[in-house]
Specification:
By secondary structure, this protein is of the alpha/beta class. It has three domains: 21-132, Alpha-helical ferredoxin (Fumarate Reductase Iron-sulfur Protein, Chain B, domain 2), CATH 1.10.1060; 148-244 and 402-468, FAD/NAD(P)-binding domain, CATH 3.50.50; 246-399, FAD/NAD(P)-binding domain (3-Layer(bba) Sandwich). The chain is built from 18 helices and 16 strands. The chain has a five-stranded parallel beta sheet with strand order 3-2-1-4-16. The chain has a five-stranded parallel beta sheet with strand order 6-14-7-8-9. Helix 2 packs across helix 4 (65-74) and helix 4 packs antiparallel against helix 5 (77-85). It is globular and about 65 Å long. The mean pLDDT is 93.
Length: 470
């Protein structure tokens, strides 16, 4: 009787090299350094090529993951890039900021008994390879249809929708309220996680498809959705204005000098580049900064404060580390860089000095009780646990609400309790004929790739609407 041969052990996941914490924590250069061609091929070779690849269904835009990974393993990086771009208009961005560990990589068969294929790292490698060589990765656009579509907002949902519609032959104009396209990609995500040159490159690729960008164009003030459909003669409108209205704690002292919403703090630093020595945009370079929250935006704010010269940055979160919604990689990077975590801690008052400036924050210790509507255990105050944390700036990063301007200026556009536009999940169709919506303005704050998925589905529905009115 022959003995069973032991199963061949899969090689370990190929780590991506990163800059050392002590070096990177004082500048805004990108932290991960990317794969070399050899490392990319080694990692891609770990993929076992499943017959029913669950990784694809785990991706909101359904990238042919086994296909582009196989081409990397073969060393055909050019073809891998072209295949990737068939379903993803923003791969260099997704490879950097998408939570692959909760989506495609979570579904990888290898993750069941070990480490998944590093799909996000490979996506980044291929996109960077194509960009560095100016490869033409977008296919030819379909013949012009004569139909015109207005996209309101140039975040990931709007950019994706614009690219898909342009490829189908429609004339597309994107209206962006700020002075640079990209939405949350440029105002919300720091340079050290997503260099703005990457966003500009992806926008340039859309312009090569014929997409036009109108900047400093605040729809709802300069023109309304009705005017776009009327006087401006657009045949359809897609609304992707995101969730840019900040939430606050609702505690005493939030009006003190030195209290920021994360939106303002990150916009000043990211879009306005306040960290540069000659920047005309002011930002408080505090010595002790408290950041309130546990998501990616909180991590971005804390790491930004450190790079702006803070001697101490404390991240205050009312639940435990296990409940933090931030990506594991971002929590890890923040800890490596010296961010102090005050967990199971909740602010109840911001303290000020005689000049009306922040001097500290009064907090309560918390303990976890029964799960709430989010499925996470509810934080409950511990009686008599009041204490102070000294700081001279507070950044509030506890979530965002939908931008209210377009819904308020579009009669007949149905919205939900929080002001989100009500839209069909599969098509993005709203209560107004010819008006579609997707991304955070519909779902509330979510991930870049989820917004892209909504933009792609809406583009398919808009194309059908323009061609046959359905």
């Amino acid at each position: 009787m022959s003995e069973k041969k032991p199963k061949k052990k899969r090689p370990p996941r190929t780590p991506m090299p990163e800059r050392a914490p002590a070096e990177r924590a004082r500048d805004f250069d990108e932290v991960p350094l990317g794969y070399s061609p050899e490392a990319a091929r080694r990692e891609a070779a770990r993929c076992i090529g499943c017959k029913k690849p669950r990784c694809v269904t785990g991706c909101p835009v359904e990238i042919d993951i086994p296909g582009f990974v196989a081409r990397i393993a073969e060393g055909d990086f050019d073809d891998a890039a072209r295949l990737l771009h068939e379903t993803n208009r923003l791969p260099a961005i997704c490879g950097r900021v998408c939570p692959q560990e909760d989506q495609c990589e979570k579904e990888c068969v290898l993750a069941k008994k070990g480490e998944s294929v590093a799909i996000g790292n490979l996506e980044r490698f291929v996109a960077d390879w194509a960009r560095a060589r100016n490869l033409t990765v977008h296919g030819e656009c379909a013949a012009a249809t004569g139909k015109r579509v207005a996209i309101v907002g140039s975040g990931p949902a709007g950019l994706t929708c614009a690219g898909e519609l342009a490829a189908r032959g429609h004339e597309v104009t994107v209206y962006e309220a700020l002075h640079a396209p990209g939405g949350v990609l440029v105002y919300g995500i720091p340079e050290f996680r997503l260099p703005k040159a990457i966003v500009a490159s992806e926008v340039g690729a859309l312009e090569s498809l014929g997409v036009k960008f109108e900047l400093n164009a605040v729809v709802g003030k300069r023109e309304t959705v009705d005017e776009l459909l009327g006087e401006e003669s657009f045949d359809a409108v897609f609304i992707g204005t995101g969730a840019g209205a900040p939430r606050f704690l609702g505690v005493p002292g939030e009006n003190l000098a030195g209290v920021y919403s994360a939106n303002e703090y990150l916009t000043r630093s990211n879009l306005m580049r306040a960290y540069e020595p000659d920047s005309p945009t002011p930002i408080l370079r505090a010595k002790r900064v408290c950041v309130v929250g546990g998501g990616n935006v909180a991590m971005d704010s804390a790491r930004t404060a450190l790079r702006l010269g803070a001697e101490e940055v404390v991240l205050v979160y009312r639940r435990s580390r296990a409940e933090m919604p931030a990506r594991a990689a971002e929590i890890h990077h923040a800890g490596e860089e010296g961010i102090r975590f005050e967990l199971l801690t909740n602010p109840v008052r911001i303290l000020g000095d005689d000049d009306g400036r922040v001097r500290g924050m009064e907090c309560l210790r918390m303990e976890l009780g029964e799960p709430d509507d989010s499925g996470r255990r509810r934080p409950v105050p511990v009686e008599g646990s009041e204490h102070e944390i000294a700081c001279d700036a507070v950044v509030v990063a506890i979530g965002n609400d939908p931008n209210p301007l377009v819904p308020r200026t579009t009669p007949g556009l149905a919205t939900g309790r929080r002001g989100n536009i009500e839209a069909d999940e599969a098509t993005g169709a709203t209560s107004r004929p010819g008006v579609f919506a997707g991304g955070d303005i519909v779902t509330g704050a979510a991930t870049v790739i989820e917004a892209m998925g909504a933009g792609r589905r809406a583009a398919e529905a808009i194309d059908a609407y323009l061609r046959d009115g359905s």
